[in-house]
Amino acid sequence: METKMAEPPTRTHINRHRNHSLHHHHRRHNHHHHTLPETTTILLVLLPIVIVIFLLAISLLVAFLHHRKPSKPNRNENANKGCMSTAHSIVTLNGTTDMKRGCRYGGSPLAISKGVQVFTYKELRSATDDFDPTNLVGKGGFGDVYRGVLRDGTLSTIKVLHREGKQGERAFRLEVDLLSRLHCPYLVDLLGYCADNQHKLLVFEHMSNGTLHDRLHPCDGRSVLNWGTRMRIALDCARSLEFLHEYTTPSVIHRDFKSMNILLNENFQGKVSDFGLAMIGSGKLNGMISTRVLGTTGYLAPEYASTGKVTTKSDVYSYGVVLLELLTGRVPIDTNRPPGEHVLVSWALPRLTNRAAVMEMVDPNLHGQFSRKDLIQVAAIAAMCVQTAADYRPLMTDVVQSLIPIVHSISFGCSSSSFRFSKRVSPRS
């Protein structure tokens, strides 16, 4: 049997095998070379898309957080520690509320906060001795005001609203709604109300010294208010408007700020009353609201009287008129005075920046109780408040901060050292 032995590989076989291996490796290398650019292209396309989505998500998050921030910053937080609003916003009068108690009349709810009582007409008749004329303490635009003693012995002031129709109804509801929610030492306290059938009455804390108007302009012409008391009342009133404008959201525009609506307690502390014409402002600073022109001649801001557009700066103008009353002892409109002196603002404005003229226009009842420096500073504040252009009037926060050192200097017998309105301010929006 013949046996065949394996033939040893020749050089030709080895070279052929080597070429085959090299060819196979070359094909694999080329396949890898073509696959790499495709992967890179996909990554280059996807990466920008991922980045865009990520940035978009961040933008949406920032916008959401910004939207949740309060629309109005709480400025000068320590200036009004005694004032607070029981609600962050004023709800509509016809809407539902989350107050502790509520009372319905006329088919819709009235917002009542804790501490505001609901009286019957019979209770208030008894409190005023059947509205005895000897208890009549004043007459307002919306009704008569009586002194009364409540069942628990509390001395109070009771206002009987007589005005009929929608305006009287609105004034009553608005005053109850606002004063039951807003609590500040410089606003008169609402103790309760009565809405018994057609009878509408408001019950306030008793203010034993009456109105600022009656104290400034008594029948005998002799005001008992000295310079220090007048300046403290000016500061009280400024703080009340600062609270309404800066510390409520939305702002509250009083719209009928005048000396008749400033009440004085036994210590001659001033408190603002009568919110029957008040308006809830827009969320924007000094946002304009178009409305009917209501209020008292002589106190109305020019832009409000001519266009019906009211802002918080309209209240600032009215405050300036009251400050002029405190300085001069004059009423806003007095046709008994000589020509050119009938309108207080028109007569006073050109004199307020003249030091010699300011000394001459001061109320004679003050008998020089003031320092010349304090007088000039207060006159300059008044001049800024009654500027014809609303943008040039200061914020009530600025007025408060300017009056504080003056009142402090009076209390401690030193001259004031700072004044914020010594230069013309730029328009503020």
From TrEMBL:
Keyword Methyltransferase: no
Pfam family, one: PK_Tyr_Ser-Thr
ATP-binding keyword on record: yes
Annotated PROSITE patterns: PROTEIN_KINASE_DOM, PROTEIN_KINASE_ST
Annotated ranges, domain Protein kinase: 131-407
Alphabetized GO MF terms: ATP binding; protein serine/threonine kinase activity
Region (Disordered): 1-34
Superkingdom field: Eukaryota
Coiled-coil spans in chain: none
Compositional bias segments (type: Basic residues): 13-34
Keywords, in A-Z order: ATP-binding, Kinase, Membrane, Nucleotide-binding, Serine/threonine-protein kinase, Transferase, Transmembrane, Transmembrane helix
Protein name: Protein kinase domain-containing protein
